[in-house]
Amino acid sequence: MIEKETNKVIVALDYANIKNAKDFVSKLNPKYCHVKIGKELFIATGPAFIEYLHTKQFKVFLDLKFYDIPTTVRKACEVASQLGIWMLNVHASGGGAMLEAALEGVNKVKEKPLLIAVTVLTSMNQETLNEIGVSRHLEDQELHLAKLTEKSGLNGIVCSAKDLSFLKTHFHNSFLFITPGIRMANDLPNDQIRTMTPIDAIKAGSNYLVIGRSITQSKNPTETLEKIYLEIN
Ligand code: C5P
Fold first, then answer.
1. Ligand 1 atom nearest to CA at 39
2. Residue 24 belongs to some domain of the structure
3. Cα(74) to centroid(ligand 1), Å
4. Which of 59, 98, 225, 231 has its CA 20 to 30 A from that of 208?
5. Does residue 98 belong to any structural domain of this protein?
């Protein structure tokens, strides 16, 4: 059963070393957010930092976006799940066999993390898709990969909040939509192309918001996070 909770913000800990990550985490309250460890921080700190976050009561989303042959992904998902993480992800474009293998890996562990798939990265647009040889319209490609994810038995997808209005209608309520590319109204988009504000993303049906720089680079991260929490609840 998928939990329904008011804690809908996942803060992206995009740091290159344990000191900076710990300094920043000390400003966060696990009542208001979960945290995400991506490739940069995981390569720098490994499983030890996940253990540290668990001692501080944070739920951890391990964002390593696996994309490989099915056997490799199955084994990676099993080992990752043993770390007691809350959420884990893979690329839907790895195909049905790879998605099913990922789920098999997760299912080997008693306390299973949520397994979600990335459809089209929020940094990509139609031009980028064409560049890599995908001629399908971006929305069609997203829906196609989301359906493949659902058919393979995963818990949900990562997608742009901009696409929720058309995507949500095609899925059951229990299918989760995790949306990065979130920016406060006055923030710079940086490298994200299709962005949305926290409140608009929640209104559009996002279950969890992945927020990085709008919180990590804000003058007062504690205040910014609490402000977002109150606004979306
Ligand atoms: O700083 P910003 O809010 O743009 O951070 C976005 C975070 O979400 C980064 O950690 C990035 O890796 C992640 N992400 C993303 N697009 C996806 C999946 C994850 O930007 N489709």
1. 12
2. yes
3. 24
4. 98
5. yes
Ligand 1 centroid distance, CA of 212 (Å) = 7
User: In which domain, by residue range, is 126 found?
Assistant: 9-232
Catalytic residues: 65
Note if the pTM is more than 0.70: yes
- Whether 108 is in a domain gets the answer yes
pLDDT tens readout for residues 129-157: 999 999 999 999 999 999 999 999 999 99
Residue 2 lies in a domain: no
Q: In total, how many domains does the chain have?
A: 1
Ligand 1 nearest-atom number relative to CA 182: 3
User: What is the full DSSP assignment across the chain?
Assistant: -----S--EEEE---SSHHHHHHHHTT--TTT-EEEE-HHHHHHHTHHHHHHHHHTT--EEEEEEE-S-HHHHHHHHHHHHTTT-SEEEEEGGG-HHHHHHHHHHHHTSSSPPEEEEE-S-TT--HHHHHHTT--S-HHHHHHHHHHHHHHTT-SEEE--GGGHHHHGGGS-TTSEEEE--B--TTS--TT-SS-B-HHHHHHTT-SEEEE-HHHHTSS-HHHHHHHHHHHH-
pLDDT band at 204 (very low <50, low <70, confident <90, very high): very high
The CATH number given to whatever domain includes residue 113 is: 3.20.20.70
Substitution site in 42, 87, 122, 149 for ligand 1 pocket (most atoms within 8 Å of beta carbon): 122
- To test the pocket of ligand 1, the residue of 210, 211, 215, 217 to mutate (highest count of ligand atoms within 8 Å of its CB) is 210
